[in-house]
What does this fold into?
Amino acid sequence: MNKLYIFFLLNFLFSDSTFCLNKFYNHNKSFFNSQVFHFKAIVDDSFNSPLSIFIDKKNKYKIEYNHKIIIADNYRIINYSPKEKQLFIDKPDSVLNNLIFSISDSLSFKNFLKKNHFNYNDFKVFYSNDCYDIDSVLFNISNRVVKLNNVNIDTLKTQSLDSVFYLNIDESKVFKYDFR
It folds into this structure.
């Protein structure tokens, strides 16, 4: 009899999670149909560091985190540290690209939220009470638990998308390392 109760409890919990995922996805479908969107969160670390990711479905993205700016596409990845005045240019990181671009694709995004992705041992999404927003995300990667709070996903409306993905610096005033 206890096994029957556990079975119904697990079904209830799983169906509620699936219900919330579907409700979130249907409510926010327009975001994932947009050309560019902006993902913001606070990384629950000792500094409560802000994380900002701009994603253009034309295969480029920009990450701002921990006083660093990363701009990438299918040809290169640029990592700029204003504090150290260092600019690193390298070949693209296919694992990171696949992760970021899977989020931008609406069908992959839904699958991404349903299951573990890229060998993450654990990936949990916590929704708001009405299921329209993501409250937080918790995942375990390489035995390190990462929690993202205050998650916000929005579209980006700008006249010039290039300005979002352009690193506006004077390269003669930074140390530049090109590893391509």
Notes: The helical segments are 2-27, 29-33, 94-104, 106-114, 161-164. DSSP finds five helices and ten strands in the chain.
